[in-house]
Design goal:
By secondary structure, the chain is an alpha/beta fold. The chain has 14 helices and 15 strands.
């Protein structure tokens, strides 16, 4: 994760300045063109978190433009925790005392199934058309297969159309492209928080688009409510607050199933959010990248494309990728479905910078059309392994007396480390984000990488995302190290003390 700096404000949780702990997301920027040494002279905005990196950079590189300096700052800020992990990555044979990664949302459970399928002869094809420039939207054979695939798995009431499909190299590129073509520089999207924090970077670096946080809290106020529940009332409050401060909101971002909560929006809730967006003429970007990673049947997941009637089809744009559901985050395949031809054409124009090779497009079409393998081999086994790993970690957390939020979707559990332990010792001595990051650092020193809540713009200090979609031996060792920290035993499994590391700025992805 990464952060944009911001000053203290009433409704957003502020990041410290550049001399203190980094890695806490939030923004309030008004353009990339200012000199790095210039300080903001306006009051901090209360309702959202997009900051102006140029306002806190002490100087720009003599070799980079001001934009380039800001982009480099994002890299430095975002990647430090992740680089710490890569410098000391756990390996069962070569580095058994290395860092266990329970912070990156990747599915590492089904490589055996995927490697066998992707190595079969039907995946290997070479012809001139695959080595030449394609239609920038993606080869027609792939877009046809994507339309059939989404029609089936999203349970759309009518077949989806290939001409409404655009293919890019992952959802990060889709967020960047949509932000750029839907918004003017300085405009904003609403997003329920906590949210997958990298979206801040996706929409800002190319489009200079802000995020207006719709802050959710863990308190349960009635029998029909749940922790971190999104309501139309909260959307209205955030929108009105942004408008009152001169921020033009152009859209709403929804992640379903949600990251990091694992929450699932019911069809009724989706309809309400879409009606809200229609009333205010807002685009809705729906990220459904975990739609096939719902491993509890009782969760009742429904795609937005399954709704009988979209309130505003021309402003509803749906994203999906193979990165999560097929454990292929390194392959980089994402797809957009939109009935708005102007939006599709504008995004397709950017595909010349974010396209896929013809060989990968062919492989993806072959994979998506193999319904027998997906339904009879991959999905049942993937769901069974996800459920077993989730059960293992959740039982460990219950044994420690740690509350958590999880609804049977995705790869992560949203863990509450604010509480008083049974031995009358707090995990967080004080309810501050500084203490949250210090606890995160203790985990990293004890060779386990988690993600802390402020990296997801959670307004309550003490929440952590713990990824469970990993092999049993790594999960067991990772949870052993988590337990050592929480029980006040900051030492490695072999009894050696952890080495000191430089203060990281935050975990990532």
């Amino acid at each position: 994760m990464f952060t944009l700096p911001q000053k203290e404000s009433r409704m957003t949780t502020a990041c410290p300045d550049s001399d203190s702990i980094q890695g806490l997301p939030g923004n309030k920027g008004d353009g990339l063109e200012r000199e790095c040494s210039r300080k903001p002279d306006q009051k901090p905005l209360k309702f959202y978190g997009v900051g102006d990196p140029a306002a806190v950079l002490s100087c720009s590189s003599p070799y980079l433009s001001s934009r380039g300096s800001i982009i480099k700052w994002f890299w430095d800020s975002a990647e430090e925790g992740y680089r710490t992990y890569h410098m000391d990555e756990y390996d069962e044979d070569k580095n058994p005392s290395g860092i266990i990664n329970l912070g990156t949302s990747e599915n590492k459970l089904c490589f055996d199934l995927l490697s066998r399928r992707l190595s079969q002869s039907d995946m290997l094809r070479m012809e001139p058309a695959l080595l030449q420039y394609p239609d920038w939207r993606g080869h027609l054979f792939l877009r046809e297969e994507v339309a059939r695939f989404l029609s089936f798995y999203c349970r759309s009431p009518a077949p989806l159309k290939p001409e409404n499909v655009v293919v890019l190299n992952g959802c990060a590129s889709l967020f960047s492209a949509l932000a750029t073509v839907l918004c003017e520089a300085g405009e904003a999207f609403l997003i329920p928080a906590p949210y997958y924090g990298a979206i801040t970077q996706h929409v800002y670096l190319y489009g200079n688009v802000r995020l207006v946080c719709v802050y959710l809290d863990s308190e349960v106020t009635g029998l029909e409510t749940r922790p971190f529940q999104l309501t139309v009332e909260k959307l209205e409050i955030a929108l009105q607050g942004a408008n009152s401060e001169g921020v033009k909101v152009k859209g709403l971002i929804l992640i379903n199933p949600q990251n990091p909560l694992g929450d699932i929006y019911s069809p009724g809730e989706l309809q309400e959010y879409l009606e809200f967006a229609k009333r205010h003429e807002l685009h809705v970007m729906v990220d459904e990248v975990y739609m096939l990673s719902v491993f509890e049947e009782s969760a009742g997941y429904r795609s937005v494309l399954s709704l009988e009637r979209l309130p505003d089809p021309q402003r509803t744009h749906v994203m999906w990728a193979t990165s999560k559901d097929f454990g292929m985050s390194g392959l980089r395949f994402g797809t957009l479905y939109t009935e708005n031809r102007a939006v599709a054409a504008a995004v397709a124009s950017l595909c010349r910078y974010h396209g896929l090779s013809g060989l990968v497009q062919y492989q993806m079409a072959q994979l998506l059309r193999d319904r027998d393998w997906i339904n009879q081999v991959y999905l049942p086994e993937n769901h069974a392994r996800l459920k077993a790993a989730h059960t293992y970690v959740s039982e460990d957390l219950r044994a420690l007396g740690i509350p958590f939020v999880s609804r049977g979707a995705g790869f992560f559990i949203w863990v509450d480390l604010r509480k008083v332990k049974q031995v009358e010792m707090r995990y967080l001595p004080e309810a501050t984000f500084e203490e949250e990051v210090l606890l995160w650092r203790r985990f990293l020193e004890n060779k386990v990488l988690l993600s802390f809540g402020k990296a997801f713009e959670c307004k309550e200090p003490g929440w952590f995302r713990l990824v469970f979609s990993d092999k049993t031996h790594r999960l067991r060792l990772g949870m052993q190290r988590v337990r050592q920290v929480l029980e006040g035993q900051p030492q490695l499994a072999d009894g050696t003390p952890p080495r000191q590391i430089q203060e990281p700025r935050g975990p990532h992805r």
